[in-house]
Amino acid sequence: MSTIPSGAFDPAKTPGLFRMVFPSVMLPMFLAVSDQTIVASALPAMAASLGDVERVSWVVVAYLVAATIAAPLYGYLGDVFGRRRLMFFALGLFMSASVLCALAPSVLWLAAARVLQGFGGGGLMSLSQALIGEVVPPRQRGHYQSYLATVATVSSVFGPVAGGFLTEHLGWKSIFLVNLPLGVVAILLMFRIQHRPGVRHEQWSFDAPGLFYFISFIAPVLIAMEQLRHFDPSTAPQVIALFAVAGLALLLLLRRERVAPAPLLPIALLSQPVIWRANALAACHGAALTSLVAFLPIYLRVIHGLSASQTGLMLLPISIGIGVGSIVTGRLVTRTGRTMVYPSWGLVGATTFLLIFTQFGAAMTITQLLAALTLASLFMGTVMSVVQVTVQTAAGRRALGAAAGSIQFSRTVGAAFGTALLGSILFATLTLRDPEAPALFARLVESGASALADIPAARAAAVNETITFAFRLAFLLTPIFTGVGIALAWTNPSRRI
Length: 497
Hints:
The protein is an all-alpha fold and 497 residues long.
């Protein structure tokens, strides 16, 4: 079986090489990113089967948190031990966890299994990015990264499409079992890539304290957000204590990473303005896109009364929009060498259409809703390929894995916090405006509009108005995230490669 040559190459001069390299890294990326959101369309069905609707969004968040922790770890270990070897390990872990997800008898079991799955998925994402950067010259990376960014962004939206279809026809457990045959294919394709030994450091040691401080920062913040959902004043001391623990852990983490011989987080890289602004932009993009996709199926179910498969089809044009935007942007980067100009203007368009959706979505027809979301996604497609090319170019060959891991780390941190924060605002608003609304909301998610048939019409109208307002307020986060992204793109000093 042929392998990739060890030297640098020009894709334009070796047309067969693209067919050899790209599928091998595309499928692991597809598996990892689609599993961030494939559960979104299935959340109503999971709530109906397992109960605990207020915590069902943790099925999404648990995966994101684990992938956040795993991404920089795999990035660094890939530099040390070789990326193909770690890819096999990540695929095996991902597939094993998928089986545990399908066997879950409760939301807590499912969330725990999703943590394990995220530890595999985070590796698939960061290793796929680094494998492209390992063998492609900087000027050509825009072309390749545009395709990989397209896979990543399209997968995040295609996930709910596939999830809706599988849930309606085969049940929600099938969305995890489908990973097994795809994982086997990914393993076979990975054999086509030549093993390259990592750059081993004689005094290298795993940054266990850094990992401990990082988990001690992430976990309390997300638990505090979970407490805020209920808007119960009696929990205020616990919430304050959790944020205090998180703040202390963050300070200790930053202190540790500055002196660690092999830091979990590449602080030296992140101190560069080009890199930290690009990473912050990736975080804002992940927060806006993933939180939108995670809660849009529930929104369409409750506000517009769509089924799981209808919801999945609604998300398909969004997937196409992101793919087109990403491919066009990648080609423009390769052709012109310009980078940040594309997200600088693209996010202006995305913010505009997200504002239209948040303010008028409940009154829109399905066609109008599709048009606004598709245009927003088209403009959001200008971000990730530019971010990857910018960071990998600034980092250089020796820190390529750490650079790729930092981008995936930032995107998944943003996605996790964005999704958790949007859910917290949604349920806190419901509770604040109407203490009975969360229970009625859960019934709507499980049974549709018929759930309110047994209450007076005036009461049903008031509940619907409360739910609509809560969604409008929660979804307002998405244009805020992209608005911050505009500032980061315009102020990034790297404008050309």
